[in-house]
Predict the structure.
Amino acid sequence: MKKAYATLSALAVLALGFLVPVKAGAPPKPAGLPATHEAGFKAFSVKCARCHEPQRAYSRKYTEAKKIDALVSRMARKPGGAMSQKDRKAIAAYLLWHNKRGAR
């Protein structure tokens, strides 16, 4: 019985490891980040880095607010992507600033 329980426990942990996003690492703060985008950068560093390396998130070079809003909203619906409306707006504004300035 103990062996069966141990096996089931190990399988549950393994399965959860595939379902729960792992923090990939926070990006460095961009040079020249305006104070108006600090909250967006912080939310991006926490929320997006749960699943993405910073370069992955920065690889989309959308410079239209509508496309960035749609992207952030889509990511927020993914498992582990839950975030407030305030965070979604702040992240979208930060990414718009980041992409328009051509930062990498």
About this structure: The chain has one domain: 22-100.
